[in-house]
Protein: Phosphotransferase family protein
Organism: Phenylobacterium parvum
Amino acid sequence: MTDAAADAIPGYDRPAVEAWLAKTCPELAGPFDWVRLPGGHSNLTWRLTDSRGRQAVIRRPPLGELLPKAHDMGREFRVLSALKDTPVPTPRPLAYCEDPSVTGAHFYVMDFLDGHPLYTVDDVREWAPEAKRRDLAFAFIDALAQLHALEPAAVGLGDLGKPEGYVERQINAWGRSWAASVAPAGFDDPRAHKVEAFLRARLPGQVPARIVHGDFGIHNILVGRSGGLLAVIDWEIATLGDPLADLAYALNPWPDPSDPEPPAETAPHAQPGFPTRSELAERYARATGADLSGLNYYVAFNRWKSACIVHGVYARYMEGKKSTEGVDTEGLKMSVLRSLELAARAAAAD
């Protein structure tokens, strides 16, 4: 990349960052070639190639005003550092900058892995050959089981979050979000309140807190060119919580023969060769010894939470706080209603 093009790197002061790397990260030798990487939850994520050909990844939050706990690069770097010597596959962290004067925000650098997340059917077809998909999905659920098997304090994460009341706190937060979004969204739904009441009435007892990823899905793994799982990524909302809530979130997108409707042909998880949701749940139970008899509660919780999240996003569009250009707002509304229907079904099955 030329010096003139370097000026176009959003969010990064290239000379300042490269000077910081020279002092802080001896594994890398500048100058660097910068290439923007897609995805990453809108974090500004670039691949760096140093003068010796070694590659790394640099991440910082997006530009603009952020919510107080959003895009927490320090948390992500801390979790990666804690997990680097565990069985959980993660990229190796290299350096973290907590001085915003360098480039306007905290950022960190980690090893680059030549892999790709599975966002779409095309990603699945390109990166996960049909013959490899069963093993890939089992590696995916095994990584979650390995994460939940860790004792947080033993890897230095005993204070990553409050160990008690994870599900109740989430219900309180997202219940408030739904209520606050009703007026700007212009619609309410009785199922949102009915499922919330169910969740409160059937609140599970306290279980030993484990490290939970919070967004564990095939969109947050890196699949290598041979079709195997290289790493789990995007740890910025990891905390301590109920592992079954994490499991249900991970399982929800996977189809199963017991589902009332067949999955959409465009669903990445529904492509030939992948195991069913029940097979993944059984594998997790064998690996962890977890009792999954109450899993429908957590399925309902995650479906309801998803509805609340998208309801809030839809409300911001309807309020004019975000541009609707190119946005399928009607699709967002239908997503809310669909999630509520699935939440109500799971609650009725519990």
